[in-house]
Amino acid sequence: MKNVATLDKIFALSKRRGFVYPAAEIYGGLNGVYDFGPMGVALKDKIKAMWTRDMRTSGKDIVFMDGSILGQEKVWEASGHTANFSDPMVDCTNCKKRYRSDDDGFNIEKPCANCGKTAWTEERAFQLMFETQLGAVSGSSSVAYLRPETAQSIFINFKNVLSTSRVKVPFGIAQIGKAFRNEITPKQFLFRVREFEQMEMEFFCQPDTSKKDFTWWLEKRGNFYKKMGLDQSRVRFREHATNELAHYSSYCTDVEYEFPFGWKELEGIAHRSCYDLSQHIKHSGKELSVFDEAVKESYVPHVIECSVGVDRLFLTLLFDSYREDEVEGESRVYLAIKPSLAPVPAAFLPLMKKQTAAFKPTFEKIRDKFPEVVFDETGSIGKRYRRQDEIGPPLCFTYDYDSDNDLCVTVRNRDTLKQERISIDKIEDYLLKTLAE
Ligand code: GAP
Predict the structure, then answer these.
(1) Does some domain include residue 116?
(2) From start to end of 372-426, where are the E strands?
(3) Which among 14, 59, 221, 340 has the fewest CB atoms less than 10 Å away?
(4) 283 and 379 inside one domain
(5) Ligand 1 centre from 40 Cα, in Å?
(6) Between β-strands 235-239 and 251-259, what pairing exists: parallel, antiparallel or unpaired?
(7) Is 348 among the domain residues?
(8) From atom 6 of ligand 1, which residue's Cα is the shortest distance away?
(9) Which atom of ligand 1 is nearest to the CA of 254?
(10) CATH number at residue 408
(11) For ligand 1, atom 19, which residue shows the shortest CA distance?
C-alpha cells in the first residue's frame, strides 16, 4: 500500500489531536524532548500493555522490575558506557553548528549545510550520558548519570531477582522505563530524542543454548510486530556488521521499519554474551555466577536482549496506520490502528446536543468497562467524525432522531465507513467483538 504519511503530517496530527506536544512549548520548546497529551498517554499505555502481555505469555519465565533512573558512576564504568558510549562529532568553526559525523547525509568533504563554509574541527567523541551531581557537595563521589539504557538496572539486580523470585536460569527480567541520551542531533520527531522510554528484556541463559535462544527471540519479536498489525512489507530484520556492534554485543540483529526517511532500527535484538555480568563481577567484587546442578559447576549466564523504544514504536504505529481518502467529496485523514491498540476504543456521538441526556447514561455504563471511550457532542456530526477518525476509534456510536423510539443507535466503522443500526443494549457486545479482532 502506498504510504502517504510524511513527518510533517504526523507531527501536525500529533499536536492537533493531543498525542504529542513539543516540551515547554510556551517557552520556545526544548530540542529533542516532547510531552505526551491525553491521546498520547492512551496510545503509549496500549503499546506498553501489549508488550508486557507478550512478554508474560511468551512461554518463557519472564519477571518484571522497575529500576532507578539515577545510576552510580561505578555502574557505568563497569558497563563500559563511561568509556565507550559516545558518538563521533564535528563542529563548524564558522557558525558553531554541531554534527554527528556518522549520520546519513553528513559528508566532511562538503561545506556546512547551515552556513556554507568548510571549516570543520577534528572529529571527536561526544559522551552521550547526562551527568549530574547528587546532594549539596560536588566532587567525584557525588557524580551520577541518568541511565542511557534500562538494561544495567537489570544486570546489577540479577542476583536480587534470582534470590527473591521463583525463577532459575533460563529466565528473563523485563523492564519499561525512561532512558536519557544527550543525542548530538535529535531528529525526525520521536525517532531520535533525548528523553525516551525503553521496553527491554534481558534473557539469562546457559552459554551452550544461547545461540538457539537468540534465534527463538528473533522469531518471537517478529511475531509481535505481526500481532501489532504493522504492514509486514515495511518490517525486516537486519544483521549488524562487526564494525556496527555496540561495545557489549557479540552479535545483533535489528528489526527495521521503512519510515518515510528510510529503513531504520525499531528494535535491537542482541547477544550480550556474559559481558555485563562479568564486568559487574569484576568491578563490584560480588558473585553473580550461578551453579549448574547437572554438571556441578558455576558459570556466568549469557544474555539475549530485546530492546525497543516506546516512543519510536509509537511513531512507527502512527506512520503505519496513517491513511487519507475522500468521503463525499471531502478529504479525510484516519488512523487505521488495530482496534485493540486504538487510544480510544469507541466514540459516542449524540446527533444533537439535546440528545445528550438520553445517551449519556449508556455511555457511562460502557465507560465503566472500557474507560477510554469518549463522548463527543460539539460541532456538526461530519466534523466530529473527522475529528474522531484522526484519533482512530474503530467505532462511532451515534444516537439520532429515531433512537428515542427504536432504542437503537447507528454504528459506523472507521475503516469501511459502513453504518449499521444496532440495539443500544448490544453496544457492549459489538464493541467487545471489534476489540477482539
Ligand atoms: N540496551 C540496549 C540499547 O539501549 P540501543 O540500540 O541503543 O540498545 C534500543 O537502543 C532501542 O531504544 C532502539 O532500538 C530504539 O528503539 C530505542 N532508542 C535508542 N535511542 C533512542 C533515542 N535517542 N530516541 C528514541 N528511541 C531510542
Answers:
(1) no
(2) 374-375, 395-399, 408-413, 419-423
(3) 59
(4) no
(5) 19
(6) antiparallel
(7) yes
(8) 268
(9) 14
(10) 3.40.50.800
(11) 309
pLDDT per residue, tens digit, the chain (437 aa), is 567 999 999 999 999 999 999 999 999 999 999 999 999 999 999 999 999 999 999 999 999 999 999 999 999 999 999 999 988 999 999 999 989 998 888 999 999 999 999 999 999 998 999 999 998 776 667 899 999 999 999 999 999 999 999 899 999 999 999 999 999 989 899 999 999 999 999 999 999 999 999 999 999 999 999 999 999 999 999 999 999 888 888 899 999 999 999 999 999 999 999 999 999 999 999 999 999 988 899 999 999 999 999 999 999 999 999 999 999 888 999 999 999 999 999 999 999 999 999 999 999 999 999 999 999 999 999 999 999 999 999 999 999 999 999 999 999 999 999 999 999 999 999 999 999 98
Cα 86 to ligand 1 centre (Å): 14
CA 95 – CA 117 distance, rounded (Å): 8
Q: What is the distance between the alpha carbons of residues 427 and 409, in angstroms, rounded to a whole number?
A: 9
Q: Are residues 179 and 279 in the same domain?
A: yes
Residue nearest to atom 17 of ligand 1 (CA): 309
How far apart, in Å, are the Cα atoms of 273 and each of 12, 39, 158, 213, 300? 43, 39, 15, 12, 9
Output the residue whose Cα is nearest ligand 1's atom 12: 309
Looking at the CA of residue 193, tell me the nearest atom of ligand 1: 24
In a domain, 330, yes or no: no
ω into 170 cis (within 30 of 0) = yes
Q: Write the residue with the smallest CA distance to atom 24 of ligand 1.
A: 192
Q: At 371, list the grid cell.
A: 474507560
Answer yes or no: is 195 within a domain. yes
CA 357 – CA 158 distance, rounded (Å): 56
Pocket of ligand 1 (CB under 6 A): 149, 151, 181, 183, 192-193, 196, 198, 200, 265-268, 305, 307-309, 311-312
168 and 260 fall within a common domain? yes
Number of structural domains the chain divides into: 2
Q: How far is the CA of 60 from the centre of ligand 1 (A)?
A: 24
Q: Residue 3 and residue 1: Cα distance in Å, rounded? A: 6
Say which CATH number the domain at 173 has.
Answer: 3.30.930.10
Domain containing 366 equals 344-435
Which residue, by CA, sits nearest to atom 5 of ligand 1? Answer: 268
Q: What Rg do the C-alpha atoms of the chain give, in angstroms?
A: 25
